[in-house]
């Protein structure tokens, strides 16, 4: 018999400053939620005019950026450039080393650029793989319609109610579902057994759980589910003032140690020291970083 996943904890993601002038609500990678393999960090970011994430390195993880509004430009030391707009995603595998910049657009109406960035750990054997990028455009993301149209699911990666995502975008298996529930709607979402999972609430109030075990969760909260169980259930009461929107994310846990120093995520202290040395000496994957400066980073006059 299918068993629901219980809520282990739910907490508000507090807004803080990050990068150069950006604001983020970080929920994974904080004292509240660490070591939640394969997830290393989750940021809900807001970056306005004159702010951003200028030139910086990474090694050993994948980053998934999902833009909710506005636009973000990207540029790296290998000559890769790109722009993502509302509803688009970029999946970046840092592997053995990347140096890049992520800079927001200056929108004509002055509105900020808002999105989610999730850091996913790489399996030990892939830590030193070649860097790569994959984009997923909003127009490519299939949708599932549930509960007579009261629930819509953008199937970014994974499966929901008979709809499969276009392709796998990360090396570590991860599901990402963007769910909108209108008043009176309900969804039961099956998740892969043994995977870690959470929901991040973007707007409205959502009732998570079923029967006599429910919790009403407001926006900007991370809802962490128990690893045991087959599905999560969410609903919005008939008399609610507005619809609710949240992400459901699940990932296959990695049985390995995480040693992180800023943008370097490896398995031992020695590997982290080596990453810092390689970056400082522009070697072993960071050769192209020597004297490299992004064009988009110059917008900040750095």
Automatic annotation (TrEMBL):
CDD domains: cupin_pirin_C, cupin_pirin_N. Fe cation binds at residues 56, 58, 100, 102. Residues 177-284 form the Pirin C-terminal domain. Belongs to the pirin family. InterPro entries: Pirin, Pirin_C_dom, Pirin_N_dom, RmlC-like_jellyroll, RmlC_Cupin_sf. Binds 1 Fe cation per subunit. It holds the Pfam family Pirin. Residues 22-120 form the Pirin N-terminal domain. Its cofactor is Fe cation. GO terms for molecular function: metal ion binding. The keyword Repeat does not apply. The keyword Iron applies. Keywords: Iron, Metal-binding. This is Pirin.
